[in-house]
Amino acid sequence: MNLAMCSSWRQIRVIAGKEFRDRIRNRWVLAVSLVFGVFTLATSYFGAATQGAVGFHGVEALIASLVSLTIYLLPLIALILGFDAIVGERERGTLNLLLSYPVTRVELLLGKYAGLAAALSCATLAGFGLAGIVIAVRAPAADWFQYAGFVVSAVLLGCVFLSLAVCASVFCASRTSASGVAIALWFFFVLVYDLLLLGALVLTGGAALGPLFPLLLMLNPSDVFRILNIFGPGDLRTMYGLLSVFPSGLAVPLFLGPVMLAWIAAPLGLAAWRFNR
């Protein structure tokens, strides 16, 4: 049993390593890192330009701006990265070749996801790390911890949408349909879900949905990411209206972190079930 598990992990590491090296070779990680780095540095310096000031003005305002940017940009990048992970191999005719090797379908799926997640995480850490240098120079140590929490939550958000993309890649029959599903997922979770939730809340007057609202927010990983970034000082908490409907006792990383991990595991588990069939 132990030998089988060791062999399985070895196969997953090999596949993940190849996937990661492929992304490094085509400079995908570098490109995404530059995008995150440029946007983050611009936000940290010009974030207060509308109030007639430039320069670093505190980590609270920086994180509030970066959360909005990250919610729109990072899920889209993750979905584009992973939507053809399996269906692309099938269309190119290389999937059967890969499965002819001594590797199971689950090992192949997990290996490809792990490699893509490593590439996306490296790009995210490198890009946001540039602003981390600015914070390290100009801010107290407490701000470092707060900014590090934001970066970790951003990595989790990217891994969630990458998991959704890989799941779509398994279920779809072509790259075209997989790309359409990926775009639909982005629109639903980033743009549509909260509008539907707020509309339902207004129509019912809050009587029916009010007690369920915190639970419904956790059904959207983008909302979980927002709430994860309100555990800082009071100045940051006032920038999020979600606190008025989400219990402050639950708005902590020890509770919401596992929720994000569940969001990663559930689509992967569904993809593995479908891929085995």
TrEMBL record:
The keyword ATP-binding does not apply. Keywords: Membrane, Transmembrane, Transmembrane helix. The chain crosses the membrane at residues 28-49, 61-87, 108-135, 147-171, 183-209, 250-273. One of its GO terms (molecular function) is ABC-type transporter activity. It comes from the Bacteria. The keyword Ligase does not apply. It holds the Pfam family ABC2_membrane_2. One of its GO terms (cellular component) is plasma membrane. This is ABC transporter permease subunit. It comes from Paraburkholderia acidiphila. The lineage of its organism: Bacteria, Pseudomonadati, Pseudomonadota, Betaproteobacteria, Burkholderiales.
